[in-house]
């Protein structure tokens, strides 16, 4: 059963491992498995992606969202976490660097956007297009391990939070994939131990920091903006 759970990760890892080829990189992006997916097939991948869904209830439970909260999901993918959050909050926002992801969200959740409940933008997680202290809660789910330089991204997440705002990150843990079988995946990821993840959040300025494993290969980091 465990191999069934990790099989999608292994498939992604093979693509990442071979990404030195421009042709393979373009194939990965066109199918949704690359670093910056584009095009109609990638958009459909985001709309029907269930591979990352197991993380969403963990994120929402930890954030303890309230109806009045303004919530931001960084690296929002196809928007399924945003949709789940909108069952509780009145307003949410999402950002992704992939045009295919943003198109998928805008197509799938057009009604929420038209009602001004959802704001979705394409952009850089290291340079968020919102003012300081905009959000009550921010998450980064299933993406930090694909970001080479985490500190600018974490600082931006902290910047756009209000004082007392909550932050959750779920990312690939280092320890479960240290063996040779996982070499293709590790080659394309920036991984942290639980202690290292907690240290990153503390260094950014989060307080009440927590970091611990989730599931078979993931880990969660949590902090509050002072």
Structural features:
seven-stranded mixed sheet, globular, single chain, 40% helix, 226 residues, alpha/beta
Describe this structure in words.
The chain is 40% helix and 23% strand. The protein is built from ten helices and seven strands. It has helices at residues 2-17, 22-31, 40-48, 55-63, 80-85, 99-108, 110-114, 150-159, 183-187, 194-204; strands spanning 70-74, 91-96, 118-122, 135-141, 161-172, 206-214, 218-225. The chain is globular, with a radius of gyration of 17 Å.
Beta-strand share of residues: 15-25%
User: Count of DSSP helices?
Assistant: 10
Helix content: 40-55%
What is the CA-atom radius of gyration, in angstroms? 17 Å
**Helix and strand succession?**
HHHHEHEHHEEHEHHEE
Q: Give the low-confidence spans.
A: 23-34
- Helix and strand content put the structural class at alpha/beta
Q: What is the secondary structure topology, with strand pairs?
A:
Blueprint: H1 2-17, H2 22-31, H3 40-48, H4 55-63, E1 70-74, H5 80-85, E2 91-96, H6 99-108, H7 110-114, E3 118-122, E4 135-141, H8 150-159, E5 161-172, H9 183-187, H10 194-204, E6 206-214, E7 218-225
